[in-house]
Each structure stands twice: as structure tokens, then as C-alpha cells.
Amino acid sequence: MIYDVSPLLSSETRVWPGDTPLTRDLRASLEAGDPCTVSTLRTTVHIGAHSDAPAHFGRGEATIDEVPLESYLGPCQLIRVPAGPPRLIRPEMLPVPLAAPRVLFATGSYAGDPTAPFTALSRSLIEAIHAQGGRLVGLDTPSVDPADSQDFPAHLACIEYRIATIEGLALDEVPEGIYELIALPLKLAGFDASPVRAVLRTLP
User: Fold this and answer.
1) For 52-81, what is the mean pLDDT?
2) Residue ranges per domain, the chain?
């Protein structure tokens, strides 16, 4: 079974204040009598389900075309965080040992407004995932750091420990468990992030 954990993207998708919303410009259209339909897409690379490159917060760090694809493909563990007020996920909420080197957190805390509080990740959680051999962390909110963060400790810890991130996943309908993650970023030269089409495939 395959779960599509990428949210639908449209002009209604909210982005960070000051960032670029999604627009579609029809350059040609079958409905207008053209021989084919051709669209131009304009939006931030941090829209929907996306992966930040280390260069997003690290000067001189790898851009999204330089990150190792192995981080985005392979066994992963989906952990559902108990409902509660927006908070930081801490190491005590992490199973020991991890069942897979890629960890996704379903928080249910994001309602579509990136400026409203949502659950995020603590630096100590990133350190604990690294200590267990983790190579990717993902969640269903637009950032691994809180909406009002000024120093971005989770982002910086992920860069330090070479842990890939996927933000903005759609995990509401997926049960906890072990899956195969497939969520490859686009090969965008010099970019700080890329949207991904993320899917979880049940293991035999």
C-alpha cells in the first residue's frame, strides 16, 4: 500500500509571510484552441512538503542539488505525538532504539497558518536521533523550529549532524509504523530547498 503524504498545492496554500505564493500562468491552453496546454509555475521552494538544504541556514553549506539522495529513500519510522498544546518534541518522546534511520513525526498541530503556533523539534531531539544513527527527520508542520524562533536551533543541529529534513508533510491519515520513504528533492542548482513528492510504502 502507498500513502501519499504530500499536501495538495494550490494558490490557496499559505506560505511564510513575505515568501512567494503559488501562481500558475497559462502560456498556452487546449481550451483556447492551442495545440497543447503549457503552464508556468512560480512559487517559493519552501512550499508544501519540502526539504531544506543545509545552505538554507548555513553559509557555504550544500545546496539542494548537492545533498545525498540516500537520505530521502529507505526505511522510516512514523511516530504519532500525543495531542496537546504546541510544544517542542524532546528525546523522551523518541523510542529507544529507533526502528529506522528516518523518523517522521505526526503532530496534528498545524492548521494551515505558518504564523500560528505549532509543534516543533528540540535541539536535544536532533542530537538523540543522531546518536542512534538517524539520517532524516520530518514532520507535518512548515518548520522544524517554532514559528516564532529567532535562533533556529533545530535547523542548525540538523546541519551540524548532517540530518536531512522534510517539512510540511500530510500525515493525518497514516498509522504509526515502519514504512519505506520515497521523497526525492528536485535537482535545482544552487537552491536552498526543494519541494518533494513524498510517499510512504508499506513494507512486506
Assistant:
1) 97
2) 2-7+45-202
